[in-house]
Amino acid sequence: MKNFFATGWGIVTVGLVIGVLAPFLQYWGNPGNMGICVACFERDVSGALGMHRAAVVQYLRPEIMGFVLGALGAALFTRDFRPRAGSAPIVRFVLGVFAMIGALVFLGCPWRALLRLAGGDLNAIFGIAGLVVGIWLGTLFFKSGYNLGRAQKTYTSVGLLLPLIMAGLLLLLLLNPQAEGADKSGVLFYSLKGPGAMHAPLAASLLVGLLVGFIAQRSRFCTVGAFRDLILFRQTHLLKGLFALFAAALLVNLVLGQTKVGIEGQPVAHTLYFWNFAGMVLAGLAFALAGGCPGRQLFMAGEGDGDAAVFVVGMIVGAAFAHNFGLASSPKGLGPNGALAVVIGMLVCLFIGFTMRKKA
Amino acid sequence: MSQTVDARGLSCPQPVLDTLAAIAAAGSGRIVVIVDTEASKENVARAAQGRGWNVDSVEESGGEYTLNLSKE
Fold it and tell me: Which ipTM score applies to this complex?
Protein backbone atom coordinates (compact mmCIF):
# COMPACT_ATOMS: atom_id res chain seq x y z
CA MET A 1 0.00 0.00 0.00
CA LYS A 2 1.49 3.31 -1.03
CA ASN A 3 1.64 5.86 1.74
CA PHE A 4 -0.15 8.94 0.39
CA PHE A 5 0.90 10.98 3.41
CA ALA A 6 4.58 10.49 2.54
CA THR A 7 4.09 12.33 -0.77
CA GLY A 8 4.41 16.05 -1.33
CA TRP A 9 0.63 16.47 -1.40
CA GLY A 10 0.40 14.26 1.66
CA ILE A 11 2.58 16.44 3.84
CA VAL A 12 0.77 19.55 2.56
CA THR A 13 -2.56 17.95 3.46
CA VAL A 14 -1.35 17.21 6.97
CA GLY A 15 -0.08 20.78 7.39
CA LEU A 16 -3.43 22.12 6.20
CA VAL A 17 -5.39 19.89 8.58
CA ILE A 18 -3.29 20.97 11.57
CA GLY A 19 -3.42 24.60 10.44
CA VAL A 20 -7.21 24.50 10.30
CA LEU A 21 -7.83 22.53 13.49
CA ALA A 22 -5.45 24.45 15.76
CA PRO A 23 -7.26 27.81 15.41
CA PHE A 24 -10.55 25.95 15.91
CA LEU A 25 -9.27 24.47 19.18
CA GLN A 26 -8.56 28.05 20.23
CA TYR A 27 -12.04 29.04 19.08
CA TRP A 28 -13.47 26.20 21.17
CA GLY A 29 -11.61 27.32 24.28
CA ASN A 30 -7.85 26.80 24.14
CA PRO A 31 -5.65 29.82 25.03
CA GLY A 32 -4.78 32.55 22.54
CA ASN A 33 -2.55 31.48 19.65
CA MET A 34 -2.26 28.19 21.53
CA GLY A 35 -4.71 25.98 19.69
CA ILE A 36 -1.91 23.47 19.78
CA CYS A 37 1.41 23.90 21.60
CA VAL A 38 3.27 20.74 22.44
CA ALA A 39 5.61 22.43 24.91
CA CYS A 40 2.88 24.43 26.65
CA PHE A 41 0.58 21.42 26.82
CA GLU A 42 3.26 19.14 28.25
CA ARG A 43 3.96 21.89 30.76
CA ASP A 44 0.26 21.92 31.67
CA VAL A 45 0.37 18.13 32.03
CA SER A 46 3.34 18.51 34.36
CA GLY A 47 1.30 21.00 36.40
CA ALA A 48 -1.82 18.84 36.46
CA LEU A 49 0.28 16.06 37.97
CA GLY A 50 1.66 18.42 40.60
CA MET A 51 5.23 18.21 39.35
CA HIS A 52 5.21 21.99 39.46
CA ARG A 53 2.66 24.15 41.24
CA ALA A 54 2.30 27.14 38.96
CA ALA A 55 -1.43 27.61 39.54
CA VAL A 56 -2.21 29.10 36.13
CA VAL A 57 -0.84 26.24 34.02
CA GLN A 58 -2.35 23.02 35.33
CA TYR A 59 -4.44 20.91 32.98
CA LEU A 60 -3.99 17.38 31.74
CA ARG A 61 -4.20 18.34 28.06
CA PRO A 62 -5.95 15.55 26.12
CA GLU A 63 -4.26 16.71 22.90
CA ILE A 64 -0.95 15.28 24.15
CA MET A 65 -2.48 11.89 24.92
CA GLY A 66 -4.28 11.99 21.57
CA PHE A 67 -1.06 12.67 19.68
CA VAL A 68 0.66 9.62 21.13
CA LEU A 69 -2.34 7.30 20.93
CA GLY A 70 -3.26 8.49 17.43
CA ALA A 71 0.28 7.81 16.27
CA LEU A 72 0.14 4.40 17.94
CA GLY A 73 -3.09 3.65 16.09
CA ALA A 74 -1.59 4.69 12.77
CA ALA A 75 1.55 2.64 13.38
CA LEU A 76 -0.41 -0.48 14.37
CA PHE A 77 -2.94 -0.04 11.56
CA THR A 78 -0.22 0.20 8.90
CA ARG A 79 2.19 -2.28 10.50
CA ASP A 80 4.67 0.51 11.10
CA PHE A 81 5.01 -0.09 14.84
CA ARG A 82 8.72 -0.63 15.50
CA PRO A 83 9.68 -1.10 19.13
CA ARG A 84 13.22 0.24 19.46
CA ALA A 85 15.33 1.86 22.17
CA GLY A 86 18.83 2.31 23.45
CA SER A 87 20.28 5.25 21.54
CA ALA A 88 21.76 7.35 24.36
CA PRO A 89 18.56 7.68 26.44
CA ILE A 90 20.11 9.90 29.14
CA VAL A 91 21.27 12.34 26.47
CA ARG A 92 17.77 12.45 25.02
CA PHE A 93 16.36 13.07 28.48
CA VAL A 94 18.70 16.01 29.08
CA LEU A 95 17.98 17.42 25.60
CA GLY A 96 14.26 17.17 26.38
CA VAL A 97 14.72 19.07 29.64
CA PHE A 98 16.58 21.96 28.01
CA ALA A 99 14.41 21.99 24.88
CA MET A 100 11.46 22.60 27.21
CA ILE A 101 13.29 25.28 29.19
CA GLY A 102 14.22 27.11 25.98
CA ALA A 103 10.67 26.83 24.68
CA LEU A 104 9.26 28.20 27.94
CA VAL A 105 11.62 31.19 27.85
CA PHE A 106 10.08 32.01 24.46
CA LEU A 107 6.63 30.71 25.48
CA GLY A 108 5.92 28.15 22.83
CA CYS A 109 7.17 25.22 20.83
CA PRO A 110 7.88 25.50 17.09
CA TRP A 111 4.22 24.71 16.36
CA ARG A 112 3.06 27.54 18.57
CA ALA A 113 5.69 29.88 17.12
CA LEU A 114 3.97 29.40 13.76
CA LEU A 115 0.50 29.71 15.27
CA ARG A 116 1.51 32.88 17.13
CA LEU A 117 2.70 34.46 13.90
CA ALA A 118 -0.42 33.25 12.11
CA GLY A 119 -2.47 35.05 14.76
CA GLY A 120 -0.54 38.28 14.21
CA ASP A 121 1.91 38.06 17.14
CA LEU A 122 5.03 39.58 15.60
CA ASN A 123 7.18 38.59 18.59
CA ALA A 124 7.07 35.12 17.09
CA ILE A 125 9.34 36.30 14.27
CA PHE A 126 12.19 36.47 16.78
CA GLY A 127 11.32 33.03 18.10
CA ILE A 128 11.23 31.51 14.62
CA ALA A 129 14.52 33.20 13.75
CA GLY A 130 16.01 31.72 16.92
CA LEU A 131 14.60 28.32 16.06
CA VAL A 132 16.22 28.39 12.63
CA VAL A 133 19.57 29.49 14.09
CA GLY A 134 19.39 26.74 16.71
CA ILE A 135 18.63 24.12 14.06
CA TRP A 136 21.44 25.50 11.90
CA LEU A 137 23.85 25.03 14.82
CA GLY A 138 22.58 21.48 15.10
CA THR A 139 23.30 20.81 11.42
CA LEU A 140 26.90 21.94 11.94
CA PHE A 141 27.26 19.19 14.54
CA PHE A 142 25.66 16.64 12.23
CA LYS A 143 28.09 17.64 9.49
CA SER A 144 31.02 17.15 11.83
CA GLY A 145 30.02 13.63 12.83
CA TYR A 146 27.61 14.10 15.76
CA ASN A 147 25.71 10.85 16.23
CA LEU A 148 23.92 9.43 19.25
CA GLY A 149 24.45 5.86 18.08
CA ARG A 150 22.13 3.07 17.11
CA ALA A 151 18.90 2.05 18.74
CA GLN A 152 18.20 -1.67 19.08
CA LYS A 153 15.09 -3.61 18.28
CA THR A 154 13.39 -4.52 21.50
CA TYR A 155 10.28 -5.99 23.11
CA THR A 156 6.94 -4.74 21.86
CA SER A 157 6.09 -3.77 25.43
CA VAL A 158 9.01 -1.30 25.51
CA GLY A 159 7.44 0.59 22.63
CA LEU A 160 4.04 0.41 24.29
CA LEU A 161 5.10 1.94 27.61
CA LEU A 162 4.67 5.62 26.78
CA PRO A 163 1.36 5.03 24.95
CA LEU A 164 0.22 3.06 28.01
CA ILE A 165 1.26 5.92 30.30
CA MET A 166 -0.75 8.28 28.10
CA ALA A 167 -3.75 5.95 28.22
CA GLY A 168 -3.38 5.90 32.00
CA LEU A 169 -3.29 9.70 32.15
CA LEU A 170 -6.39 9.85 29.99
CA LEU A 171 -8.12 7.50 32.40
CA LEU A 172 -7.06 9.74 35.30
CA LEU A 173 -8.57 12.71 33.51
CA LEU A 174 -11.86 10.90 32.91
CA LEU A 175 -12.01 9.69 36.52
CA ASN A 176 -11.09 13.08 38.01
CA PRO A 177 -13.01 15.75 36.11
CA GLN A 178 -12.76 19.30 37.39
CA ALA A 179 -15.50 20.28 39.81
CA GLU A 180 -16.86 23.80 39.36
CA GLY A 181 -14.50 26.25 41.05
CA ALA A 182 -12.20 23.56 42.49
CA ASP A 183 -8.48 23.53 41.79
CA LYS A 184 -8.09 19.87 42.64
CA SER A 185 -10.00 16.75 41.72
CA GLY A 186 -8.69 13.47 43.11
CA VAL A 187 -4.97 13.49 42.36
CA LEU A 188 -5.15 16.04 39.56
CA PHE A 189 -4.56 19.77 39.80
CA TYR A 190 -6.58 22.24 37.75
CA SER A 191 -6.24 25.93 37.03
CA LEU A 192 -8.98 28.37 38.01
CA LYS A 193 -7.53 31.18 35.91
CA GLY A 194 -4.83 31.71 33.32
CA PRO A 195 -4.03 29.56 30.28
CA GLY A 196 -4.52 26.33 32.25
CA ALA A 197 -8.17 27.26 32.82
CA MET A 198 -8.76 27.77 29.11
CA HIS A 199 -9.45 24.66 27.15
CA ALA A 200 -11.63 23.23 24.45
CA PRO A 201 -14.15 20.53 25.45
CA LEU A 202 -12.39 17.28 26.31
CA ALA A 203 -13.90 15.37 23.40
CA ALA A 204 -12.83 18.01 20.86
CA SER A 205 -9.29 18.14 22.22
CA LEU A 206 -8.97 14.38 22.29
CA LEU A 207 -10.45 13.78 18.83
CA VAL A 208 -8.27 16.45 17.22
CA GLY A 209 -5.26 15.01 19.05
CA LEU A 210 -6.02 11.49 17.81
CA LEU A 211 -6.55 12.65 14.23
CA VAL A 212 -3.40 14.78 14.16
CA GLY A 213 -1.41 11.97 15.79
CA PHE A 214 -2.64 9.54 13.16
CA ILE A 215 -1.88 11.62 10.07
CA ALA A 216 1.32 13.13 11.44
CA GLN A 217 2.70 9.65 12.12
CA ARG A 218 1.97 8.66 8.53
CA SER A 219 3.48 11.83 7.08
CA ARG A 220 6.45 12.23 9.52
CA PHE A 221 5.39 15.87 9.91
CA CYS A 222 8.21 17.66 11.74
CA THR A 223 8.76 21.38 12.20
CA VAL A 224 12.42 20.98 13.13
CA GLY A 225 13.13 18.46 10.38
CA ALA A 226 11.64 20.98 7.94
CA PHE A 227 14.40 23.52 8.52
CA ARG A 228 17.06 20.89 9.17
CA ASP A 229 16.47 19.15 5.85
CA LEU A 230 16.46 22.48 4.04
CA ILE A 231 19.79 23.51 5.55
CA LEU A 232 21.44 20.10 5.47
CA PHE A 233 20.12 18.60 2.22
CA ARG A 234 18.41 21.50 0.38
CA GLN A 235 15.21 19.45 0.67
CA THR A 236 11.88 21.20 1.01
CA HIS A 237 9.58 18.21 1.55
CA LEU A 238 8.80 18.77 5.24
CA LEU A 239 8.92 22.53 4.82
CA LYS A 240 5.89 22.32 2.52
CA GLY A 241 3.89 20.95 5.44
CA LEU A 242 5.04 23.74 7.66
CA PHE A 243 4.04 26.42 5.14
CA ALA A 244 0.68 24.72 4.65
CA LEU A 245 0.11 24.81 8.41
CA PHE A 246 0.99 28.50 8.57
CA ALA A 247 -1.12 29.48 5.56
CA ALA A 248 -4.17 27.56 6.79
CA ALA A 249 -3.88 28.96 10.33
CA LEU A 250 -3.49 32.50 8.98
CA LEU A 251 -6.66 32.15 6.94
CA VAL A 252 -8.75 30.40 9.59
CA ASN A 253 -7.71 32.97 12.22
CA LEU A 254 -8.94 35.73 9.90
CA VAL A 255 -12.22 33.93 9.31
CA LEU A 256 -12.75 33.30 13.02
CA GLY A 257 -11.77 36.88 13.93
CA GLN A 258 -8.79 35.73 16.01
CA THR A 259 -6.17 37.87 14.25
CA LYS A 260 -4.53 40.69 16.19
CA VAL A 261 -1.43 42.08 14.52
CA GLY A 262 1.15 43.67 16.77
CA ILE A 263 3.88 43.34 19.36
CA GLU A 264 2.31 44.50 22.61
CA GLY A 265 -0.42 42.72 24.52
CA GLN A 266 -0.29 39.44 22.62
CA PRO A 267 -1.80 36.41 24.37
CA VAL A 268 0.62 34.38 26.53
CA ALA A 269 3.65 36.21 25.13
CA HIS A 270 6.27 38.74 26.15
CA THR A 271 8.05 41.37 24.08
CA LEU A 272 11.70 40.74 24.97
CA TYR A 273 13.11 40.37 21.48
CA PHE A 274 16.45 38.94 22.50
CA TRP A 275 15.05 36.33 24.86
CA ASN A 276 12.35 35.28 22.41
CA PHE A 277 15.22 34.66 20.02
CA ALA A 278 17.66 33.10 22.49
CA GLY A 279 15.11 30.79 24.10
CA MET A 280 14.32 29.30 20.72
CA VAL A 281 17.99 29.02 19.73
CA LEU A 282 18.35 26.73 22.73
CA ALA A 283 15.14 24.83 21.95
CA GLY A 284 15.99 24.54 18.25
CA LEU A 285 19.46 23.19 18.97
CA ALA A 286 18.15 20.69 21.53
CA PHE A 287 15.36 19.50 19.18
CA ALA A 288 17.80 19.19 16.28
CA LEU A 289 20.31 17.20 18.33
CA ALA A 290 17.49 14.90 19.44
CA GLY A 291 16.29 14.41 15.87
CA GLY A 292 12.90 16.11 15.79
CA CYS A 293 10.44 18.69 17.06
CA PRO A 294 8.37 18.01 20.18
CA GLY A 295 5.38 16.91 18.14
CA ARG A 296 7.46 14.48 16.13
CA GLN A 297 8.93 13.08 19.36
CA LEU A 298 5.39 12.31 20.56
CA PHE A 299 4.52 10.63 17.25
CA MET A 300 7.74 8.59 17.25
CA ALA A 301 7.07 7.59 20.86
CA GLY A 302 3.66 6.40 19.64
CA GLU A 303 5.22 4.25 16.92
CA GLY A 304 7.48 2.45 19.40
CA ASP A 305 10.56 4.65 19.72
CA GLY A 306 11.60 4.33 23.37
CA ASP A 307 14.27 7.02 22.98
CA ALA A 308 11.72 9.55 21.77
CA ALA A 309 9.62 8.53 24.79
CA VAL A 310 12.53 9.41 27.07
CA PHE A 311 12.79 12.79 25.34
CA VAL A 312 9.09 13.38 26.02
CA VAL A 313 9.53 12.53 29.69
CA GLY A 314 12.53 14.88 29.73
CA MET A 315 10.34 17.69 28.42
CA ILE A 316 7.69 17.08 31.09
CA VAL A 317 10.35 17.04 33.82
CA GLY A 318 11.98 20.11 32.23
CA ALA A 319 8.68 21.95 32.55
CA ALA A 320 8.64 21.15 36.26
CA PHE A 321 12.14 22.58 36.66
CA ALA A 322 11.21 25.57 34.52
CA HIS A 323 8.42 26.58 36.89
CA ASN A 324 9.91 25.41 40.18
CA PHE A 325 13.20 27.23 39.53
CA GLY A 326 11.73 30.40 38.02
CA LEU A 327 13.06 29.74 34.52
CA ALA A 328 9.83 30.02 32.53
CA SER A 329 8.77 33.37 31.15
CA SER A 330 5.34 34.90 31.63
CA PRO A 331 3.56 37.76 29.85
CA LYS A 332 5.35 40.03 32.36
CA GLY A 333 8.73 38.94 31.01
CA LEU A 334 11.56 36.60 31.89
CA GLY A 335 11.52 34.35 34.91
CA PRO A 336 14.09 35.40 37.56
CA ASN A 337 16.52 32.67 36.49
CA GLY A 338 15.50 32.28 32.86
CA ALA A 339 18.54 33.99 31.35
CA LEU A 340 20.96 31.87 33.35
CA ALA A 341 19.07 28.71 32.37
CA VAL A 342 19.41 29.55 28.67
CA VAL A 343 23.17 30.01 29.10
CA ILE A 344 23.51 26.74 30.99
CA GLY A 345 21.30 24.96 28.44
CA MET A 346 23.44 26.21 25.56
CA LEU A 347 26.59 25.04 27.32
CA VAL A 348 25.06 21.60 27.91
CA CYS A 349 23.94 21.31 24.26
CA LEU A 350 27.37 22.38 23.01
CA PHE A 351 28.99 19.86 25.34
CA ILE A 352 26.75 17.15 23.90
CA GLY A 353 27.31 18.29 20.32
CA PHE A 354 31.07 18.58 20.56
CA THR A 355 31.79 15.45 22.56
CA MET A 356 29.42 12.98 20.88
CA ARG A 357 30.97 12.92 17.46
CA LYS A 358 32.19 9.80 15.72
CA LYS A 359 35.45 10.20 13.93
CA ALA A 360 35.10 9.37 10.26
CA MET B 1 31.01 -3.61 -6.87
CA SER B 2 28.33 -2.03 -4.72
CA GLN B 3 28.78 -0.19 -1.48
CA THR B 4 26.54 -0.92 1.51
CA VAL B 5 25.28 1.70 3.96
CA ASP B 6 24.01 0.13 7.18
CA ALA B 7 21.72 2.75 8.70
CA ARG B 8 19.76 0.39 10.94
CA GLY B 9 18.92 1.83 14.33
CA LEU B 10 20.02 5.33 13.41
CA SER B 11 17.64 8.21 13.95
CA CYS B 12 16.94 11.22 11.74
CA PRO B 13 18.80 12.63 9.85
CA GLN B 14 21.60 10.05 10.04
CA PRO B 15 20.36 7.53 7.44
CA VAL B 16 20.02 10.26 4.83
CA LEU B 17 23.37 11.82 5.78
CA ASP B 18 25.12 8.45 5.42
CA THR B 19 23.37 7.74 2.11
CA LEU B 20 24.26 11.13 0.65
CA ALA B 21 27.87 10.70 1.79
CA ALA B 22 28.01 7.37 -0.05
CA ILE B 23 26.40 8.96 -3.12
CA ALA B 24 28.93 11.79 -3.09
CA ALA B 25 31.81 9.34 -2.74
CA ALA B 26 30.56 6.98 -5.45
CA GLY B 27 29.41 9.49 -8.07
CA SER B 28 27.67 6.67 -9.94
CA GLY B 29 27.22 2.91 -9.76
CA ARG B 30 25.31 0.92 -7.15
CA ILE B 31 24.66 1.53 -3.47
CA VAL B 32 22.74 -0.69 -1.07
CA VAL B 33 21.14 0.99 1.95
CA ILE B 34 19.67 -0.97 4.87
CA VAL B 35 17.25 0.80 7.24
CA ASP B 36 14.75 -0.41 9.81
CA THR B 37 11.97 2.14 9.85
CA GLU B 38 9.48 3.06 7.17
CA ALA B 39 10.28 6.75 7.72
CA SER B 40 13.97 6.15 6.99
CA LYS B 41 13.06 4.11 3.91
CA GLU B 42 10.99 6.99 2.55
CA ASN B 43 13.59 9.60 3.48
CA VAL B 44 16.48 7.69 1.90
CA ALA B 45 14.52 7.03 -1.30
CA ARG B 46 13.47 10.69 -1.53
CA ALA B 47 17.03 11.93 -0.97
CA ALA B 48 18.55 9.53 -3.48
CA GLN B 49 15.99 10.44 -6.15
CA GLY B 50 16.67 14.11 -5.42
CA ARG B 51 20.31 13.48 -6.35
CA GLY B 52 19.35 11.79 -9.61
CA TRP B 53 19.72 8.19 -8.40
CA ASN B 54 17.22 5.44 -9.14
CA VAL B 55 15.60 3.32 -6.48
CA ASP B 56 15.70 0.00 -8.36
CA SER B 57 14.07 -2.07 -5.67
CA VAL B 58 13.13 -2.13 -2.00
CA GLU B 59 13.15 -5.49 -0.26
CA GLU B 60 11.50 -5.96 3.11
CA SER B 61 12.39 -8.73 5.48
CA GLY B 62 11.99 -8.99 9.23
CA GLY B 63 11.14 -5.32 9.64
CA GLU B 64 14.20 -4.19 7.70
CA TYR B 65 14.28 -2.54 4.31
CA THR B 66 17.06 -2.99 1.77
CA LEU B 67 17.10 -0.25 -0.87
CA ASN B 68 19.02 -0.86 -4.05
CA LEU B 69 20.12 2.45 -5.52
CA SER B 70 21.86 3.00 -8.81
CA LYS B 71 23.01 5.68 -11.18
CA GLU B 72 24.46 5.17 -14.66
Answer: 0.94
